[in-house]
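User: Please predict the structure of the protein below. I'd like the answer in C-alpha cell form so I can feed it into my own downstream comparison script.

Assistant: Understood. Taking the following sequence of 103 residues as input:
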Amino acid sequence: MHPDIKHRDDVSQLGDLLGDMVGRFGERHELTVKLEQAWSEILPAGLSEHCRLDEVSAGVLKVNVDGPGYMHEIRMCKRQLCDALNKAVPGLKIRDIKTNIGN
C-alpha cells in the first residue's frame, strides 16, 4: 500500500471526527440559546433580574443569584421550573436546579 493512502484515511477520519464535534457544538449552542430564552420568559421580571444561568451539566441547571432570598424563591419552585423548561425546550432534560450566590 502506498504511504499516502494511509495518510488520506487518517485525514478522512479526523475530518469526520471534527465534523461530528462541530455538529454537537451547534446542537448544544442551539439548546443553550433556547434555554436562555425560555428562562427569561418563564421567570417573573422581578426574579429574573436577580438570577443568571451559569451552566447545565448532567441534567443539573446551575443558576447564580444575587442573594439568599432569590435562592430561596428558586428552590421553592424548582420542580415547576424544571417542568416548564423541559416543556419549552424539547431535547432539554433538566432534572434539578442548583443555586449559588454570586457572579
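That's the full C-alpha cell string. The chain has a mean pLDDT of 81.
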